[in-house]
């Protein structure tokens, strides 16, 4: 391997962690603060307020020190005890893995599974809840990123709420790129992360917790207490007494504070529109080249990452290495049973701006052409640019 091949990629167009803006990088490189200094205490609380504003929620926001898997496990342990009946809605590998975690905790799991290029039908959720009144918890992934698909949680949440079930919703990659409205949609616990569409470093999980969820957690003798996984510790110690359960990552929090500020200054609606435009552009480009999307329809395609079905005979790992080493562009593979079948162009955060989607599309298309696949890179470029072009009523892409 040459020195050129071992250099850092020029463009990080992955499904997360993503590249950060200069403002966020500057915040991550700021002096390390004492966690009980008045300046940091206010920054921590202001970060909570900013996250709540992005979620559009009046519920409590818990900022946990760890990648989103920490908070997703904390959510499960908080509301589930041995014998709890759960409905796990599976449209991708992340939801599939979450079901494994629920079973490990002793839950009785009813699993509703659809094809991994499809999405959950809320009518099926209503039917399953009616047929199984013992269901107490519903788990759903909003955007199962390996599939590049969205589930209609705006419709699933109210169905679960009407049946008295607590919802755990994984919005790790959808927050900031798609509408996420916990209060309006009746989502009791939502979990997101700092390193996706908000564009900061991995290390902080953001959790919204409704009053109904807090009541269930307090009533659950199996909920973690005095633990790194405890949501209750944050409620009782930080919210009630202003004391951290453990030392927070001051650097990661400072980065998240800056990332949230940047997004709120742009506007949540505008940020979502930016991601949706980037997603449309990527999908238009890869299809114009002659490639096939993994998502079964445009309606369920995610705004944060475009999953592309690989042509037969292409080694996915070798393709990604080639695109990285030759063109300096880092894209993502898939997870679980999709490995080798799907490659993904991320357009999260910084990568949803300007001509980044064009870079991702052309890097993938040219890489596949280098592997002997006949594709139309010119058509791909034109379609991507057409989709990125400003509409008569709107501004140019930021």
What are the SSEs and their pairings?
Layout: E1 11-12, H1 22-28, H2 38-55, E2 60-65, H3 68-79, E3 85-90, H4 93-104, E4 108-113, H5 122-131, E5 137-141, E6 143-144, E7 149-150, H6 153-162, E8 166-170, H7 182-185, E9 189-193, E10 204-209, H8 211-219, H9 231-241, H10 250-266, H11 268-289, E11 292-293, E12 305-309, H12 316-327, E13 329-330, E14 342-346, H13 356-370, H14 377-388
Parallel strand pairs: 1-13, 3-4, 3-5, 5-8, 8-9
Antiparallel strand pairs: 2-10, 6-7, 9-10, 11-12, 12-14
Helix pairs in contact: 1-10, 2-10, 5-6, 10-11, 11-13, 11-14, 12-13, 13-14
Any overview of this molecule?
The chain has 398 residues and is α/β, with parallel strands linked by helices. The protein folds into 2 domains: 4-18 and 267-388, Aspartate Aminotransferase, domain 1 (Alpha-Beta Complex); 31-264, Type I PLP-dependent aspartate aminotransferase-like (Major domain) (Aspartate Aminotransferase, domain 2, 3-Layer(aba) Sandwich). The chain has 14 helices and 14 strands. The protein has helices at residues 22-28, 38-55, 68-79, 93-104, 122-131, 153-162, 182-185, 211-219, 231-241, 250-266, 268-289, 316-327, 356-370, 377-388; strands at 11-12, 60-65, 85-90, 108-113, 137-141, 143-144, 149-150, 166-170, 189-193, 204-209, 292-293, 305-309, 329-330, 342-346. A 7-stranded mixed β-sheet has the order 2-10-9-8-5-3-4, with helices on both faces. A 3-stranded antiparallel β-sheet has the order 11-12-14, with helices on one face. Helix 1 (22-28) packs antiparallel against helix 10 and helix 2 packs across helix 10. The chain is globular and about 60 Å long.
């Amino acid at each position: 391997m040459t020195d050129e091949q071992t250099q850092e990629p020029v463009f990080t167009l992955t499904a997360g962690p993503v590249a950060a803006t200069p403002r966020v990088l500057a915040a991550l490189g700021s002096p390390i603060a004492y966690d009980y200094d008045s300046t940091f205490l206010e920054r921590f609380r202001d970060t909570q307020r900013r996250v709540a504003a992005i979620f559009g929620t009046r519920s409590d926001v818990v900022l946990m020190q760890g990648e989103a898997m920490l908070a997703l496990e904390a959510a499960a342990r908080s509301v589930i005890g041995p014998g709890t009946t759960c409905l796990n809605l599976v449209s991708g590998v992340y939801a599939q893995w979450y079901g494994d975690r629920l079973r490990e905790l002793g839950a009785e799991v009813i699993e509703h599974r659809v094809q991994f290029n499809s999405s959950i039908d809320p009518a099926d959720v209503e039917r399953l809840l009616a047929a199984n009144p013992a269901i107490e918890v519903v788990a759903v992934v909003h955007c199962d990123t390996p599939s590049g698909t969205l589930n209609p949680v705006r419709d699933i949440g109210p169905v679960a709420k009407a049946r008295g079930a607590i919802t755990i919703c994984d919005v790790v990659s959808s927050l900031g790129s798609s509408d996420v409205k916990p209060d309006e949609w009746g989502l009791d616990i939502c979990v997101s992360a700092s390193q996706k569409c908000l564009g900061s470093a991995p290390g902080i999980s953001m959790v919204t917790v409704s009053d109904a969820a807090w009541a269930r957690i307090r009533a659950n003798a199996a909920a973690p207490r005095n633990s790194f996984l405890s949501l209750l510790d944050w409620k009782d110690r930080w919210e009630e007494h202003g004391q951290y359960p453990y030392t927070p990552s001051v650097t990661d929090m400072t980065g998240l504070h800056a990332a949230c500020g940047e997004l709120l200054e742009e506007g949540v609606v505008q940020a979502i529109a930016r991601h949706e435009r980037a997603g449309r552009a990527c999908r238009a480009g890869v299809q114009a080249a002659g490639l096939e999307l993994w998502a079964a329809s445009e309606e369920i395609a995610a705004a944060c990452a475009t999953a592309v079905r690989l042509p037969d005979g292409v080694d996915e790992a070798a393709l990604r290495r080639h695109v990285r080493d030759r063109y300096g562009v880092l894209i993502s593979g898939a997870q679980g049973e999709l490995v080798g079948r799907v490659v993904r162009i991320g357009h999260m955060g910084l990568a949803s701006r300007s001509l980044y989607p064009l870079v991702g599309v052309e890097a993938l298309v040219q890489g596949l052409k280098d592997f002997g696949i006949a594709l139309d890179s010119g058509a791909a470029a034109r379609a991507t640019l057409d989709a990125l072009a400003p509409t008569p009523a709107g501004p140019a892409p930021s």
